Amino acid sequence: MPSAAMASAQFQDPTQVRVPASQILVSDQMKMALIEEEGMHHTVYADPVGYLTVGVGHLVIPKDNLKVGDRISQGRMALLLEQDLRIAEDAVVQLVGDLPLYQHEFDALVDLVFNVGAGNLSPEESPKLNRAIEVGDYEAIAEELAYHNAAGQKLKGLEYRSDRREKIFMEASYDNPRSQSEVTRT
Fold first, then answer.
1. Which candidate, 110, 113, 137, places its Cα nearest to that of 125?
2. How many CB atoms lie within 10 A of CB 136?
3. On the CB side of 46, how many CA atoms lie within 13 Å of its CA?
4. 1, 36, 123, 170: which could join 130 in a potential S-S bond, CB 3.0 to 4.6 Å?
């Protein structure tokens, strides 16, 4: 029979102690922050750099069988978000390996993967981030969470999102850094 200490070690709360990323799922707080950042779009549109997008930041792929102007249901939107989050969670686990994380650190890294794609976080594309993870330098990891450009364009929205991501990682603060007037305009 497992001891109480063994059982509690297996199910530690990632908000209170760093645990392996493989034991963490994205928090509801992060899901809400993603929805704030990405919006909820029932109609397929081209994002600022031309990628077809729908739902909560879901990049349309051929198997989705969607084109600009097509509409999806709330249920399909939720399903796409959950699928995309599972992919991002798995990518974070691959990225950090054995490095233990708090819930908020994991959430920030999920947001990073969700926003820029796992391929942009490879050792070739993001060597400083990978080095910081390798040596367990959490402050250096936070410094590497900033991505301000997409398709060669500097985008204000990405600056805000990067600031927010860093605050999530370092301070467990999920607050939106935009002023209320900026939020209602977007």
1. 113
2. 13
3. 4
4. 123
Tens digits of per-residue pLDDT, 20-36? 999 999 999 999 999 99
Rounded Cα distance, 57 and 186, in Å: 14
* Number of residues that make up the chain: 186
**What architecture does CATH give domain 16-173?**
Orthogonal Bundle (1.10)
Question: pLDDT (tens digit, 9 = 90+) per residue, 93-152?
Answer: 999 998 999 999 999 999 999 999 999 999 999 999 999 999 999 999 999 998 765 556
Query: For residue 102, which of 31, 166, 26, 14 has the smallest C-alpha distance?
Result: 14
Chain-centroid distance of CA 144 in Å reads 14
In the block, tokens 């402050």 appear at: 139
Phi/psi at 44 (nearest 5 deg)?
-65, 135
List of residues 6+ apart from 116 with CB closer than 8 A: 147
